[in-house]
TrEMBL record:
One of its GO terms (molecular function) is DNA-binding transcription factor activity. Pfam families: Rrf2 (PF02082). It comes from the Bacteria. GO terms for cellular component: cytosol. Residues 141-169 are annotated as: Disordered. This is Transcriptional regulator, BadM/Rrf2 family. Gene3D superfamilies: Winged helix-like DNA-binding domain superfamily/Winged helix DNA-binding domain. InterPro entries: SUF_FeS_clus_asmbl_reg, TR_Rrf2-type_CS, Tscrpt_reg_Rrf2, WH-like_DNA-bd_sf, WH_DNA-bd_sf.
Length: 169
């Protein structure tokens, strides 16, 4: 099963809490209370998100955390990268030389295409979109829909170009 870690999900919850009031400084305890997560987990996530330069920390009694960029410019891919590292469906989809059968493998190029499609899908959704309140359960706000069109997505120039297949008779 292809699945993001719980910490990644929790990081998105914390980031949406910050994005709800992006100019305000938020304490770790406030974010823990708002997100219904343990304070230790939130503190761990805040360190990871700050290290990735998605949020900034201000020390002191009046300190806290706030976004370093607008919610419209932070993507779900940024949050995943901050918590899990580079998005990789398989190790060879981002790192050459990690596999003993790489030189004879016929699937690496396709895994890289799949990996890039997943990355583009996650990069197409912004924190602002995720933080937008739902008008009613199960629906996206009409003014802020999340859409992704893989055929229209820009290809990464490093990704291999798929070979065309002959038409079936």
């Amino acid at each position: 099963m292809l699945k993001l870690a719980k910490l990644t999900d929790y990081a998105t919850v914390v980031m949406t809490a910050i994005a709800a009031e992006p100019a305000q400084l938020h304490s770790a305890q406030e974010l823990a209370d708002r997100s219904h997560l343990p304070a230790a987990t939130v503190s761990k996530l805040l360190k990871m998100l700050a290290k990735a330069r998605l949020i900034e920390a201000t020390r002191g009694a009046q300190g806290g955390y706030r976004l370093m960029r607008s919610p419209e410019s932070i993507t779900v891919a940024d949050v995943v990268d901050a918590v899990e590292g580079p998005i990789a469906v398989t190790s060879c989809s981002i790192h050459a030389g990690d596999c003993s059968i790489e030189s004879s493998c016929g699937t690496r190029a396709n895994w890289r295409l799949i990996n890039e499609a997943i990355r583009q899908a996650l990069a197409a959704v912004t924190l602002a979109q995720i933080a937008a309140p739902m008008r009613r359960a199960g629906t996206m706000p009409a003014e802020n829909p999340i859409t992704f069109h893989p055929r229209k997505a820009k290809r990464n120039s490093d990704a291999p170009i798929p070979a065309t297949r002959p038409a079936a008779d």
